[in-house]
Known about the structure:
- It is built from 21 helices and eleven strands.
- The chain is α+β, with helices and mostly antiparallel strands.
- The protein has a five-stranded mixed beta sheet, with helices on one face.
- Helix 10 (about 180-190) packs antiparallel against helix 11 and helix 15 packs antiparallel against helix 20 (about 405-440).
- The chain is globular.
Amino acid sequence: MKQWLTGPTAVAVAxxxxxxxxxxxxxxxxxxxxxxHLAANPGDxxxxxxxxxxxxxxxxxxxxxxxLPYWLALGRGVAGDHLxxxxxxxxxxSLVLCHSLAFLFxxxxxxxxxxxxxxxxxxxxxxxxxxxxxxxxxxALGLSAVACFIRGxxxxxxGWVAGAGVLAxxxxxxxxxxxxxxxxxxxxxxxxxxxxFGVGAGAFAVAVFAGWESFVEARAGESxxxxxxxxxxxxxxxxxxxxxxxxxxxxxxxxxxxxxxGLLAGRAIRLxxxxxxxxxxxxxxxxxxxxxxxxxxxxxxxxxxGGVKLELATLVFGSLGTGVLLASLGAAGVLLLRPRGLLxxxxxxxxxxxxxxxxxxxxxxxxxxxxxxxxxxxxRVIGIGVALAVLAGRTxxxxxLPVPQWIVASTIAAGIGLFGLDTWDSFPERxxxxxxxxxxxxxxxxxxxxxxxxxxxxxxxxxxxxxxxxGVSVLKAGDWLxxxxxxxxxxxxxxxxxxAKFRVDPASAEPVDEYVWxxxxxxxxxxxxxxxxxxxxxxxxxxxxxxxxxxxREWIPERVK
Length: 561
């Protein structure tokens, strides 16, 4: 019974239940809209228009491979449009994720699996990123491919290898960030002298991936993957600068999501316990300062022209991330170089191949981050974090270090804390949209319009409101307008107008009411955790401010830059 309570099934149930209480946030809106369409039109995945960013656009333009939307469409048959119940249908992905991780930790860090599993899934690297977005389901399928492939190679069973290739193809068709999974499989195969297994698994992955793209091309006239590949290439100006600008955010996001594995790696390479504990304490104090200090007061350095050069969140998370990378580099050195007297174990050749695999896995994930990331976000480093977890756990086992309970506890606490903050930060968009809908009541023949993106769009849509398309939408006398009040024109605020930006004409609409969500906690994760340079930042404005207007005369809002 005790083993079940700490095992992968229990962890999967826990992460699913926690995820279910979180409101829709950020890109959840698009995925739920796709699921609604697919439930009615399963054979035409991109044959509709979606209002995304600034105007209705073909669904082909939204970067969204099919696996998760189809799963959510099936889930709607059970849960309907009830978001809490719909999220519970994601339990199979959680189970696949946790059991795959349990296998991988058991294979590469035997004896340390349960604490590593809890640190990984309930820590800040996975739990906050679930939602109904692509990243965690894609990770689950990608890791299951790796686990099946390793089992197939170790037992020389072709069926497991073929299954791994199919899972790798499905993972890539869940999110394109999983495209490097076949490279991970081939790396393992080469190191373990079974290259044909790696080639075979890769062939199955390509067949699954290309088969779906061929279907989409036959149905919609073009491949979804190639469409977005062309879009990305057309938008690039200076490729090298673009990739270099991804480095600092990567370090900062790892500082917020993988710090527990950095601490474990530090102890595994025999850094003094007091030093590692002091780093953890200083990091906790720094994060606490980020959470309570408003952004306007957190600037620590400025450029001569007055522009911001470095602020508190960047300093704190960047420092933690640098520590994670340095400790992980040290762990890789211990695994690969094996200083005399530090590691003594039997079956040297097997362990050597496994150690090189783990170190190479980290390198592949790092390369994939730079190759496939269109813009920095916390979810872009999930794969790196998992590989670092395997690296740190393996180093700890080979140096005979029991995983310290205080590192496990503090990592889980950080994960629940970041998840709790993100959940709290996502409530305003739901609650203020509902308050505005209650204020309007039954509009009768009038139309209720709204402006805003992300989770706010989802809840306004559910309340029967229509998005304003500047220059096109005609607001008539008697209509209503629900309008988020953005603090200024310089920052990147939520619910983000998505490019559909306009100003309210006081001669055409009169204010009726205003709702403000404000609290004493300065920390925010939206949009920083989902697109920015740091996972958490302090704020110096209300979390959300929404005004309700009554239209007094016919008016076409004009788009402003």
